[in-house]
Design brief:
The protein has a single domain, classed as Beta Barrel (Elongation Factor Tu (Ef-tu), domain 3). Helix content is 0%, strand content 53%. The chain has no helices and eight strands. Strands 4-3-8-1-2-7 form a six-stranded antiparallel beta sheet, with no helix packed on it. Strands 5-6 form a two-stranded antiparallel sheet.
Length: 85
């Protein structure tokens, strides 16, 4: 059983390009495995790449708003957890 830790919340979702904006409450890096959960959302995926202000970043910190591709529709208010193996 793996644990999970809250790292942020979805603030926007751009359906045409499949990108979610996450406001972070903790650090997140490409390669991390995340779970996005909400009333009708339940997605697990790896973070392939992230952007802050349209620039690729290797790590984002608390307070950053990061854009990332998501595998399915998410909704504002959905919670983002980092899965800790």
């Amino acid at each position: 059983m793996s644990d999970k830790k809250l790292v942020g919340k979805i603030s926007h979702y751009f359906s045409k390009i499949g990108v979610a904006v996450v406001v972070l409450e903790d650090t997140l890096s490409p390669g991390d495995r995340i779970s996005i959960e909400g009333a009708t959302t339940n997605i697990q995926q790896n973070v392939d790449s992230m952007q802050v202000e349209h620039k690729e970043v290797e790590m984002a910190r608390k307070g950053d708003s990061v854009g990332m591709k998501v595998s399915d529709r998410v909704r504002p208010g959905d919670l983002v957890y980092k899965i800790i193996e």
